[in-house]
Amino acid sequence: MRAQAAREIGSLSKFIVECLEPCAGNSITLGSIYLRYLHWRPVEEEQMGTYAFGERFKRLVVRLVPNCEIHIAADRQAIVVWNARLKPKRRKKTTP
Q1: What is the pTM of this model?
Q2: Closest by Cα among 76, 89, 87, 95 to 28
Q3: Which of 75, 72, 46, 45 is nearest to 57 (CA)?
Q4: Cα–Cα distance for residue pair 47/1, rounded to 1 Å
Q5: What is the pLDDT of residue 11?
Q6: With 90 as the cut, is the pLDDT of residue 83 above it?
Q7: Domains and CATH numbers, the chain
Q8: Core-most of 2, 13, 29, 42, by most CB within 10 Å?
Q9: Is a pLDDT exceeding 80 seen at residue 96?
Q10: Is 56 exposed, middle or buried (0-12, 13-18, 19+ CB in 10 A)?
């Protein structure tokens, strides 16, 4: 169980570094970030559930994206990351 958690944290850290960047005044929901993660993760990697993703993400993002802030609505229906944005998706090269 610990080995799996360590792998997930490593993968999530890589995702945050590759796909998020500081952006003053911008905000993005955790749901949007999770959807990008689902498309980003390698197919052979086990999918992390939404709860595990949210808990691990909240601990890591404040360390890896300078000046970002986590805001959680009182009813816990929305988690928003302030001062960050998703980087534009890279287009995959296609071979002729």
Answers
A1: 0.82
A2: 87
A3: 72
A4: 15
A5: 86
A6: yes
A7: 2-86 (1.10.10.10)
A8: 13
A9: no
A10: middle
